[in-house]
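job 3f2a | input accepted
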Amino acid sequence: MDLPWAENKIIEHSKLLANSFFFWTKKDLINGNFDSRENSFHLYHAPFVLISHGIENDPVFNYANQKAQELWKLDWNSFTKMPSRLSAEQVEAEERQRLLKEAGEKGFISNYKGVRISSKGERFIIKDTILWNLIDERGQYRGQAAMFSNYEFLS
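job 3f2a | predicted structure (155 res):
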C-alpha cells in the first residue's frame, strides 16, 4: 500500500508546511500537538486541500494531500510530477502569477480565489484560499503552499 505521508522526506516536508504556516499566520495548520510522523499523517488526511510546489524555474508540485489528489483526480506520483501552472486554466495564469508574486513579497495572502482544472478537464473555483511561502529553519525560501476547503465545480 502506498503511504506517501510515511516517507521520511514527506514527514520533513509536512513539518516545513506546518512551521511555515505558523510563522506567517500565527495559526496552526492542524489542531493538536503531534510528533512529526503524526503531523504528516494528519496533514495528508486533513479535511482540506493542501498542496505545495518547489523553487524550480517552472515550479513542480512536491506535495498534495489526499483531498487534493481526489479533487484533481491524480495519484501522488502523477501530482508530484506536474508543474503547478498546469493546475490553473491558461486564462488564469497571469492572475495566478501576480498572486504568487504578491505572496512571495508579503509572506502569505488569504481569501484568494481562482479557477482550476482537474486532470479530467473539470473546472472548479477555489475560494478562501491561503497561499504562503515555505521557509526552512535557516530562513531559506523553499517554495509556496496553499490550502483551501471551499471550492465549487463549474458547468
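job 3f2a | The chain has five helices and six strands.
job 3f2a | closed
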